[in-house]
Amino acid sequence: MERVLRVENLGKSFKDRQIISDISFDVHKGEIMAVLGPNGAGKSTTIRNIMGIMYPDEGSINFRGFDKGTVPRHKIGYLPEERGLYKNVKVMDILLYFAELKDYPAKKARERALHYLKKFDLEGKEKTSVEELSKGMGQKVQFIASIIHEPELLILDEPFSGLDPVSQELFKEEIRSLADEGTAILLSSHQMNLVEELCDRLYMIHRGKKVIYGTLDDVKSEYANFKCTIRGTNVRKRLEQLSGVQRAEVDEGVSVLHLDRDTHVPTWLSELPVDLDIQELSIDRISLHEIFIGIATDRLGEKEADLIEK
Ligand SMILES: Nc1ncnc2c1ncn2[C@@H]1O[C@H](COP(=O)(O)OP(=O)(O)OP(=O)(O)O)[C@@H](O)[C@H]1O
Question: pTM of the predicted model, to two decimals?
Fold first, then answer.
């Protein structure tokens, strides 16, 4: 796969506090790569270092075809975490201004602006001033501004925050189609369901350090243990004593049993006691959301998370 961005051993401190250390990943042409982590993990700090908004104390950032440390702004689109456009400027004017900043031809920019305004249900808003837009509409305009110049690499810091479900869906579809057209996409998020539906690879940061890096499929098959959900009246203590059960949650006649990493499901099922009350039973892998919660609350010890470091 063609590499567009390489981040190597990035480290950054504020005063005496190490905020991120040893952050390394690549972003490839045509892929959606997600940087994940709980609040304060260091996602925005990582992105701001890539964008040259701040400088790393250690490590390097390399864009394909450019000297180390050079940020080729005309090749990159960026949606910052802090939203905000000039308030008393008309929508079309601001989009053309962003295109001009990236040396993108005005005629093509106008065509693309009209195309995307229509796509994002903002047709006819070209002459509306930004301050008259709702928050979600403003976010759509800012997203369009970040892609108006056909960037090779698109960096989106929390693109879904503050959007309603319909707009989230629109953003998701657009991000996917940009990747399909070859744009390399790096996004940060803590909305795991959206990431799970959208990203190809992920890099999870916790307390400024890597805990997981890999394809979504690898992460799920290597890291997402099985859980067994049973509808029936059973006592939690007894369920927790079953072999292969890490922990059990019981709530209103539904028990969720989290199984050990190496559980062989057919064998485990065949060894269940015959007197358990089972009205319904299902086996699933835990979701990315549950992996994330496990890490964020330190339920999955660092040793376990390290098992799939790549
Ligand atoms: N300019 C700064 N000066 C001092 N500390 C900072 C600065 N910027 C960020 N930090 C600290 O660095 C840590 C990581 O912040 P960062 O914004 O990168 O996290 P994040 O993963 O993006 O979090 P969130 O999901 O809440 O946006 C936090 O503890 C934050 O307080």
Answer: 0.83
